[in-house]
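agent: user wants the structure for Multidrug ABC transporter ATP-binding protein from Sphingomonas taxi. delegating to structure tool.
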Amino acid sequence: MPEPILAVAGVSKTYKGGFTALHHVDLTINKGEIFALLGPNGAGKTTLISIICGIVTPSTGTIQVAGHDAITDYKAARRRIGLVPQELSVDMFETVLATVTFSRRLFGRSGHSAYIEQVLRELSLWDKRDSKIMELSGGMKRRVLIAKALAHEPEVLFLDEPTAGVDVALRRDMWKLVHGLRERGVTIILTTHYIEEAEEMADRVGVIDKGRLLLVEEKAALMHKLGKRELDLTLVEPLAAVPAGLERWQLSLQSDGKVLRYVFDATEEHTGIPSLLRELAERHIGFKDLETSKSSLEDIFVDLVGQRA
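agent: tool returned. relaying tokens verbatim.
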């Protein structure tokens, strides 16, 4: 049996004004796992992370981090957590090395220069160690946040929208770093609204929307669901209805009958597209344009919410 390192049970958050940001969330994360929490902006991702990290107090529920109660034994639980927030929260006039060393000492660790050097080298920050934060680029500042979070050698690392607004090179470096940390036994929990980020890094994926955890699944199973694609055929002549005999493709008409839409699973070996096009040709149903698109994360959320309404 996998060993759980984080257990969230019945956690909810309602603010004084009456707004409920989280509704009874249950979630267990296993040691050494990479877990991605997917959701649109305002879904409750940051609220959940803030509660686990002790920044926000839950209205109900319990949280265990590496066997420590995050509410009654806050310091012990927090020592095992590293957090990379979305917002930049550093002293702009301090140097990179001093910033990271201070974070390490803040958690009762000695100023272990060999470990800090390793972290800074992994994040391509070693050559910038004597630079002030204000002198760094946006991407480099994000790397400093990661170094700060890793400074005290946490067992669990939270990455809140780690690659939002960063360049492609940093995104690749982030993915490489995450896999390297997992090899060292660190448990990674990241929030994102990028499907490809979850696909690249995660073992399991959770989907949250409007403060509710809609599902938690193995990545492969969820990616199969996310394999939905749409083929839109712009017709030469509009149709009043989908012709009889085409039921097996489950087609629909869009744009007042001017577009024939076929939704298919791109992960399947046989998508059914060639046979559909042949059938349309035999029926003399002409089209002047063809376009395929991937279902957006928002579309998937609508589907999931609809199924649970």
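agent: one observation worth passing along. The chain has a mean pLDDT of 86.
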